[in-house]
Amino acid sequence: MTVRRFLPVLFCWVAVATPLFAAQSQYDAWRGQSVTWIRVGIKDPDTVQTLRSDSPLLVLEGDRVVQTIKPGGLFRVTSARIQRKGYRYWVHIHAAPKRQDVEVLQTKLEGLHPESAFKVVKQKDGYALRGGPYVKKQDAAAARDALVGEGYAKAEVVTSKTRYPLQWVNRFYDKFDLRAEKEVGLVHADPNQPIRYAGTAYRGVLRFRVSGGKIRIINELPMEVYLRGVVPTELGPNVFPELEALKAQAVAARTYALKNMGRFNRRGYDICDTPACQAYEGTLNEHPLSDQAVAETEGVVMYHGDTLIDALYTSTCGGLTDDVGNVFPGRNEPYLKSKSSYVAAYPSWTLPKKDPPKAVAALGGHLAAEALLYRLQPIDSDAALGAKQFQKYLEQLRWIYGDVPTYRGPEHVTVRAFWETLAQLPAVVSVMKHQFHPADSVRPLLGRDLDPGLQPLAAFLLRFEFVNNDEVARLDSEAPLLHNQAVALLLQLAHAWGPEPEWDRYTVTDVKNGVLYLQRGTRSKTLALANVRYYLSEHAEEWRFQSQPKLEKLDRVYLIDGPFPQNILRIQENYKVASVDRFSAYDVWVDKKSVEALEKRARRYVRGLRGIRDVKVLSRSAAGRVTELEFVADSGNRRVKGLNIRWSLGVRDNLIDLVPSYRNGRLVHLTVMGRGWGHGVGMSQVGAYGMAAQGWRFDQILTHYYDGVEVAAYVGKTKPDSGSP
């Protein structure tokens, strides 16, 4: 290993505060815990892996500490043997006869190219720099080209060899070999602390294996620590803050992991980190509530008879889970049967009556709501706008418009007088002065017979889409401007220039004695309904007022934040379904696809498919899921089953209905109407949340979704014979 000679103590890796034997002792104490360990394959293999070292690290061969590394910020682990004969590539820069001059250049280039390490090398005629290493020749060539572009015309690509499969590279070292023949491990000097990789911190050991010329990273850690990362990633506590649901998730995840231990042995790990196994993102999503769920169920799993179950679970089941064989053909586990999520009725409350604003009659619900949000107080009138009322509106919107002009036009405001007044607003004046060229006022108005005095304003309104081409022709109209037209235009400007309303979402937990009890994540809040003046809901992007809405437990409501009226309660209507998994964003959904997009997707899963002419459902399960689908195509008909149905269609679940559109007898478009998200087998995760909110214990949730199982302490994949000594 080569280090900078002028910083021999700071960067020499052997000058570390913790001797190897002390580091080994600390690691052995941690590794010697009497727990189940799991190896998780994380991310995709690559030729270079980037990590962060803010604390001392230990380098492991197996469980033997062979090196220690001081903190160094970002660093890379590279594969050295992906090229034939173990070549690595460097960028060589002919520099100067004096070493100190080259070291100055070294410092400069390290600042410009922190992704590379630069090594001072001696030559017959002086000193030079080498930057790298690079595992691909094209990467080294790209770095050389960049240096040539910066004026280093003699930069060239050179090669060297290595005997070890992995190197560590950062901006302080040119490189050093990680001295293990097969698998290298990195762990924090305090093994209870995480190590950071690709922006995420991982507890335990990160092990590196070279396979097929690429580096695969494996996170090895205790099972219960692993679950701290899985549970909140699979069922987020901030969105679904029910402890019993999280405990059910912890037991299901633990059971699944133990059942599937060793599934990927050939790749060197037990389980993957994606939803294909269980979603795991290190410490990224750890949360006190899910930590509590893991701790309170430590070691608890599910058995069917004497055998650990394969505890499949799905995000949202659309009201009914399915028999495993309908989704995974060939499987028939007796505990994975269709189960209903229509199992709990929720308490409901009718809120006190609140009359909508009077202006709704003249303006309609949406415009009246916009006026309310932006503190505009429109009168209940559909007549022509008067001068005094126009001035009042301008004053009410001063908090957005800034200094407002004084209206000096006719008593009944005309279209022209309205726009001539708004042209005096500070924002309009400033933009017209600094961002418009005279030609900008001519080009969009060519061929139009418009008063030249209004042309700059017309160009401004067109640029920011406040009016369309047809409306421009009426800017000089002397016709009276109707009240509702004026309000709509004023609010359009307010919406364009002012703040957007920000809504904080809460879950309703109770209503009693005129008080609304709310929850946001793990935080609780109360709202006195006497302080609420209006109820708002949103439907198809249109605001609507409600006078006396009905709420159920776990319904979602929103409170506004920022410089807006605080006496509004926004209610999320949820009348779509009655199952306990209706609190998912995907309890009901619609997906639309052109036949071109459909075929591009389907060809990834259906071999030889070309020229789709139709899509037909051939069979369904009792739960309603499609179990066999046929693509009618020019290349011949193709049938798909199981998970390939939703994968080939690119939809969330197999619980679907198809609405095809045809032209000349061929499919041109497909609308898919569906429910649920996931494979639909085992426990419904959002359903577990809905049941927990109704008082179901975690074991009751589990025995509902998994037929005939026992919730018990883990004693092995198969229970030992109770009759044996």
Describe this structure in words.
- With 725 residues, the protein is of the alpha+beta class.
- It has five domains: 82-161, Alpha-Beta Plaits (2-Layer Sandwich), CATH 3.30.70.1070; 222-336 and 680-684 and 695-713, no CATH class; 348-356 and 500-571, OB fold (Dihydrolipoamide Acetyltransferase, E2P) (Beta Barrel); 375-497, no CATH class; 589-674, no CATH class.
- Strands 4-3-12-15-16-1-17 form a seven-stranded mixed beta sheet.
- A hairpin with a 4-residue loop joins β32 (626-633) and β33.
- α5 runs antiparallel to α19.
In short:
The protein is about 25% helix and about 30% strand. With about 725 residues, it is of the alpha+beta class.
How are the strands of the largest sheet arranged?
A: 4-3-12-15-16-1-17
Global morphology:
globular
- C-alpha termini separation: 59 Å
Strand content: 25-35%
**Total of domains:** 5
Oligomer: single chain
* Biggest sheet layout: 7 strands, mixed
Low-pLDDT runs: 1-18, 82-86
* Rg, Å, rounded: 34 Å
Q: Structural class from helices and strands? A: alpha+beta
Number of strands: 37
* Count of helix runs: 20
Q: Residue share in helices?
A: 25-40%
Average of per-residue pLDDT values? 88
